[in-house]
């Protein structure tokens, strides 16, 4: 196998594993941007679409959509319902990113674990076990990290950069229903129930 073929294969495997960020993985990013058409053709054969945002510097694979008359290929990327706290955290981070972009000229939104905990606590059911609450929030943050929406800053356990790929997943449909969703979360925090669909991305 030639060096170019090996580099192509490694870049595709990286995409199958997770989101590829320019800032973190320049080598694979260069292959993705220079061989974009080749990768698109390759993954389309198994029902996937390559999404690349060169401005914000990320790429990932997404299950393609089908028309009514098209025969679907079985899903390679399964859909998973998100837990209430993880869904809530995604909404809060997306809302914060929207506010950040509209009020500053900075490119990087940095949040602390304390800020995340304070925002989430407004929508979580009251608990007298503060240690458990902090531990649970740590788990939710870790899940968001693995999904590629938060990146822990080097040398820090408590500071995170919100990744702009979040804008692609929490889309305009979500943005149009922020108030309704947050109201649903407030009801939940006060002992109510989430209705079907309120806990999914």
Question: What key phrases describe this protein's structure?
Answer:
single chain; 201 residues; mainly alpha; Arc Repressor Mutant, subunit A; 2 domains; 3-stranded antiparallel beta sheet; disordered C terminus
Report on the architecture of this protein.
This protein is mainly α and 201 residues long. It has 2 domains: 3-63, Orthogonal Bundle (Arc Repressor Mutant, subunit A); 84-189, Orthogonal Bundle (Arc Repressor Mutant, subunit A). The protein is 50% helix and 12% strand. The chain is built from 9 helices and 6 strands, in the order αβααββαβααββααα. The protein has helices at residues 3-17, 26-34, 36-44, 84-103, 113-121, 130-147, 166-169, 172-175, 178-189; strands spanning 20-21, 48-53, 58-63, 110-112, 150-152, 159-162. The strands form 2 sheets. Strands 1-3-2 form a 3-stranded antiparallel β-sheet. α1 packs across α2, α4 packs across α6 and α5 (113-121) crosses α6. The N and C termini lie far apart (40 Å). Residues 196-201 have low confidence and may be disordered.
The total count of helices amounts to 9
The class by helix and strand makeup works out as mainly alpha
Sheet having the most strands: 3 strands, antiparallel
Spatial ordering of strands, largest sheet: 1-3-2
Please outline the helices and strands:
Blueprint: H1 3-17, E1 20-21, H2 26-34, H3 36-44, E2 48-53, E3 58-63, H4 84-103, E4 110-112, H5 113-121, H6 130-147, E5 150-152, E6 159-162, H7 166-169, H8 172-175, H9 178-189
Antiparallel strand pairs: 1-3, 2-3, 4-6, 5-6
Helix pairs in contact: 1-2, 4-6, 4-9, 5-6
């Amino acid at each position: 196998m030639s060096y170019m073929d090996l580099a192509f294969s490694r870049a595709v495997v990286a995409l199958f594993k997770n989101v590829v960020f320019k800032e973190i993985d320049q080598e694979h990013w260069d292959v993705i941007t220079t061989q974009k058409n080749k990768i698109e053709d390759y993954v389309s054969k198994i029902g996937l679409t390559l999404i690349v945002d060169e401005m914000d510097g990320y790429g990932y694979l997404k299950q393609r959509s089908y028309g009514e008359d098209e025969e679907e290929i079985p899903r390679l990327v399964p859909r998973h319902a998100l837990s209430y706290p993880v869904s809530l955290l995604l909404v809060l981070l997306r809302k914060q990113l929207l506010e950040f972009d509209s009020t500053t000229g900075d490119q990087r939104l940095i949040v602390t674990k304390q800020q995340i905990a304070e925002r989430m606590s407004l929508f979580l059911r009251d608990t007298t076990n503060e240690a458990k609450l902090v531990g649970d929030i740590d788990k939710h943050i870790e899940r968001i990290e693995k999904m590629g929406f938060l990146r822990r800053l080097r040398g820090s356990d408590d500071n995170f950069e919100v990744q702009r790929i979040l804008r692609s997943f929490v889309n305009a449909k979500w943005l149009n229903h922020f108030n309704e969703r947050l109201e649903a979360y407030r009801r939940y925090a006060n002992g109510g129930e989430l209705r079907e669909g309120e806990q999914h991305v």
